[in-house]
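Re: your question from the hallway

Yes, I did run it. Sequences:
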Amino acid sequence: MSRNQEGEAPLISGGSRRQVSLFDLRVRDEFANDEAKGSAPVSRAANYVTPGTIVTKEMGFMRGHGTFVNPSDQSLVASVVGAVERVNRLVTVRGIGGVYYGEVGDVVVGRITKVMQKRWKVDINGRLDGILLLSSINLPTGELRRRSAEDELGMREVLKEGDVISAEIQSVYNDGSLALHTRSVKYGKLGPGTLVKVPSSIIKRRKNHIHNLPCGVSVILGNNGYVWISPLPNGRMPGTNLEEEDADGKNTVLEEIRITKADRMAVARLKNCIAALSKSWLPIYDTSLMYAYEASTKYECGELLRPDVMQEIGELVRQQMALEGAGS
Amino acid sequence: MDESDRSNIGMKRANLDLNDEVGNLVMPGDEFSIPKDSSKVILGPGLRSVIDKRSNELKTIIACKAGLLRKAKPNTFFLEMKTRSYHSFKKDDVLGIIKQKSKGEHYSIDVACRELRAQLSKNAFEGATKRYRPDLQVGDCIYGKVMDFPKDYPLELTCVQPSGKACGLGSLNGGHIFHVPVHFVRALRTASPKDNLLQKIGRIVPCETAVGANGLVWVKASNAVLTILVAQLLQTLSKANPDEYGTYLNKFNSTVRTVV
Amino acid sequence: MAYRTHLDDLWEQQIRPDGRTPHELRNITCQMGIFHPQASGSASFNIGNTKVMAAVYGPHEVRSSQKKHHNPDKMIINCEYSSATFSSNERKSSTKADRKSMEISSNLRSVMEHIIIPDIFPGSQIDVYVELLQDDGGSYSACINAATLALVDAGIPIRDYAVAITATMSHSVCMVDINAQERGQCAELTIGVLAQSNEIIVLELANLLQNFYLKDVLDEGIKGCAAIYKILEEAVRQKFNKMEQSLV
Amino acid sequence: MKPKTIANCTRSLVKGGAKNGIRLGARGIHEFRTAKISFGNSVGSCEAVLLPGTRVFAQASAAIGEPSDSRPGEGAFTISVWVSPAATGEMVGSSEKPSAIARTLERMFKENRAVDLESLCIKFGELAWILRVDVHVIEMNGCLQDTAALAVLGALLTFQRPQAEIDVNTDELVVLPLAECTPVELHLFHLPAVMSFALCDEILLAEPCQEEEDILPGKLLVGINDSKELCHLHLTHPIEQELLLEATKLAQAQCLDRLNMLKGLVEEVKTQREVPIYKRPQGPRATGTVLSLSALETSSRNRSEKKPSIKYLSPLITASDINMLEELCIL
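Structure:
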C-alpha cells in the first residue's frame, strides 16, 4: 500500500515489557554505605524502571511504595519512575520528585492553613495537611499544664493562618495524615525569613536539619521540601521561638531584630543557591549549600537568577562533591 | 361567584355517613359526620379528624386522599388507594439499603422514600453485643422492622424481633432488590394463601423473597438468570391487571423451561 | 472538467502536503519540569506546531468546593483544560467555560482516573491543568501526552502511560498525525492507548469515517502511539539520569 | 421512588448476569432497546422513547437573523439541552449531563455538517435563517444520547420553514406566510444516529438502562449515519480493539434499522400533513408582508449602528406576526 511502511517512521512495538531481575539489586544497607561517596553507584541506572515496567513476576514479594500488583497476572509492576530497591521481601521504587509521605522524626517546615477545634491544620507539602494539636505545642508562657478552654479560645493568638512554623513529625495517623509537635525550643513559629520550595526527595536525610551557616544565615531544611532561610541574629539560635526568649512582649521582640542589608543579601544569595541546586537536582544538605554559596561569590546576587549561572553553579558543586567523594 | 354555583362545580360532599359509604369511592375533601353512637372510631390512612379550635371538640372527619373506603372489624376505617410512596407505620417490615456507614452507632438506610430518612442501630441484630456485631458495608441490603417513627427524626429500624430472635430479619446476601408500587406490595402481603402470587411463582422457580412495606422487593433464586427472570416477572405484574396474572405466569413458566 | 492539482501529484507519490510520508510523525519535542518547582510535576509536549503545556499539583488536602460531598475514602482528580485565545486562527474571547473545553476537561479526567492507581491517596486531591498554546492539529492527543508526562514528573503512581495520536484514512491510505491543513479534508480519529497493554482508552472522531476503515485506522494509530511512547520514555530517562545524583 | 443507593447484590447480579448472557429486564446482552417515535402537531417537533423509560422531546424552530462573521454565507444552527428536574427527581441544572448530551449532538449534527446550512442563507453576510433545536429530557433511564439524537433527527426531518427571499428590484426581505407558499424542508446531507454500550469486563451491553450505567464504569458511544460512516466515537474506559470493532458492527446494523423505521414514520407524517401546493392568486399580493431593508437600515443606524435583524420564533408565521414584527423593528 505504501512505499515507506517501515523504515522512515519511528515505529516500534508498544507491548514490549522490560523486566528487571531482582537478584541484581543490592540491599538498601549497601546504598547507605555509598552515602559518604556522594556520587551515584553505577548499578542504580540498571535498576531504572518507568511506570508499567514489570519489577518481578515471582510471588512472595511485598508491595512497597511505587509499585502495584497487576490484577491479571499478580506480577509486581512499577508505578513511578525511579530505581528499584529491595529490603528483604519488600520491594520499593524510590521515585525522583514524588510525593512526600513523611516519617516519624522528620523535621518539617509548614504553613498554618486552618485553625480548628483544639488543632491547627498545617500545609506541609504532603498529600494531606499535617495536624498540630493544641496539646503538642509549648504554651507561649512556657508552663506545663493541661490546656484549658481559654487556651482554646486564644489559639489564634499563638498561631494564626499564614504563619510559618517548624515542627517535627510525632506520629502517622491511620489515614496517612501526619501529627506534628513543636515541643522543643528548636521548633515553633518562625520569625522574619524566606521560604523556598524544592522537591522533597533532594533534601538529604541527616542527623541535623537546622544549621547555622558561616555566612551568617540559618537554614531549616524541612524533609518535606520546604526550606526556611533566616538571618542569624547575634548569638540567637536559629529557628527558635522568638517569643519564648523574651516572655514579656513578643511583638516588640520581633521588631527589635535589626536585619541589616548584608543579612538580606546573604539570605537572598542562599535562596538563589538553593534554587540552583534544585534546578540541577543536587542533594541539599549543609555541605552542598556551602559549596554552592562559595561558588556563587564571584557573581552578584541578582546574576544568580540567570539560567546559565545556575547551571554553572550546579556544575561546580557537582565537581566539588565528586572530589570529596574521591577523597574519602 | 355565589354559593350555589360553587357547590355545583366543586361537588363537595358533606355530612356523609362512614358506614354508608364503605366500599364507595371517596374524594379528597369529602366530609363525614361524627358517628352518633359515641363508640370509638379508629381512622386509618387517608382520613383525618378535624377539631374545632374554639370549642376544642371533634367537628368532622375529612378525607385527604382519593380511594375506596374500607372498614375493618372494630370500627376502623381507612382508604384503599394506589400509591407509589410509602407511609410508615410501627411494626412495618421494610427493606432498605445501607446508604452510609458513620463512625457512630448507626447505619443510615435508604428506604426508597424521599421524605423518609431511616437509621439502624449497629447493635440491633440477633446476638449482637458491643464487641461482636455484624460489619455491614455500604450497599448491603437489610430487612428490618420499623421500631419507631418520631416526627422530624429518622425512622428507627431494628433487625431483631422483640423476642430477641431475628426470625428472618437481618442482612440479605446475593439476589436482587428492586422497587414496585406500594399498593402492589400490599396486595402481595395481604393475599390469601390460595391466590398468593409469590407462592405460585415459587412453585415454578424455587426462590427466596422478602417483601418490604416500603415497595422494595428482594428476590434470590438459584442463579443470576432465574433471579433476573423472577424480578422481571414481578415488575411486569406490578403494572398489570390482576386478571392477566394467569397468562403472565404461564408465559413465565414456558420461559423458565427453556432456560433450565 | 476537473483538473489535477499539485497536491494530487504529490498524492500519487504518497507525499502529504507538508512533505511527510503517510506514516511519518511530525517533529516531537517534550520537556519535563517546565514549572519546577512551583508545580509538583509539569511538562510540555510539542508535535509540529501544536504546543501544549501541562502542570500537576498535588496530591494535597481537598480544597475545592467538592469537599462537602466528598467520600473520605476516595481521591478527587480535577482536570482543567483551556486553550489560549491565540491558539487557533479565530481569536476566541473566553475559552474556559465553553462546551468544547468542558468536554475535553471531563474526557481528560476520565483518562487520568484510569491511569492513576485508584484511591492510592484517599482524601486527597490531584489537580491537572492543561493549556493549549497553539493548535495545528492533534491538540487533544497532545494534551493527553503532556498530562501523562506531567503525572510521571510529579511522581504520582500510575498504572501505565496513556499516549495518544491522531490517524485517518484518505485516498485509501492510512495516515498518522494529522495536521490542521489535512484536518479539513479528511476524518480525524484521536486514538489513545495504554502503552503496555495496548488497550484503547481514548477515541474521538471529527468528520466522517467509513466504518469499514476503522480497523486499519486503529492499527495505524496504535503504531503511532508506540512511537510516541518511545519518545516519552526517552524524555523520562533523560530526566532520571539528570536526577540520579540526588537519590540517596 | 426508586432507591438512590445501588445495592451490592444488584451490582454483582448485573455482572453475573452479563456473563450468562442476560441483563436486568431479561434482555439479552446485545439486544437493543425498542424505540418509539411520535410527532407533535407543530412542525418540527418529535418525541423519541427508548423503552423502558427514557423519553426525550425535541422541537426545531427557525428565526431570521444575522449570520456569524466567520461564516457569512451560512445559516446558524444551535442545539440546547434541558434536563427536566422531574426526570431525575433532583435539580440537574447546568451540571455535566446536559452539556455532555449537547456536545454529542453538536458533534454529530453540527460539526459533521448533517444539515445543509448554506441553503439557509438569505442574503450573504446579512440575513440568514437561524435554526434552533431545543431538546428536553422528560424521562431518564439511561441512553440519553441515543434517544436525544433520534428526537433531534426526527425534529429536523419534519421541520418546515416559510420561504424568505430578497426582492431583487427593491432589495426588500419578503417572508411568505406558510399558508401562502410551499413550505421549505431542511436539506440533510446524512442521517446520523448514536448507539451506546456499557462495558462489563470484555462483554458489551447494548443500550444500558440507568442502573447498568451507574453500576458499570465503562461507556462507549458509537455514532453512525445512514451511509455506514462513523460520525461520533466516545469512550470512557479502556477497551480491547476487537471489542470496539464488534461494537461498531452491532451499532451499524441497529442504526440502519432504526433510521429506516424513522424514515418510514417521517414519510407517513408528511403524507398526513397534506401540504397544499400554493397557487399564487392573480393581482397584487394579498397578505404577504414586505419589509424594506433600506428603511430598516436607516432607522437602526440612527440609533445604534446595528445591522437589521429580524427575528421571530414561531415556525408557523402568520401575517399578524409579521405586522407586529414590523412595528417592533421600526419602532
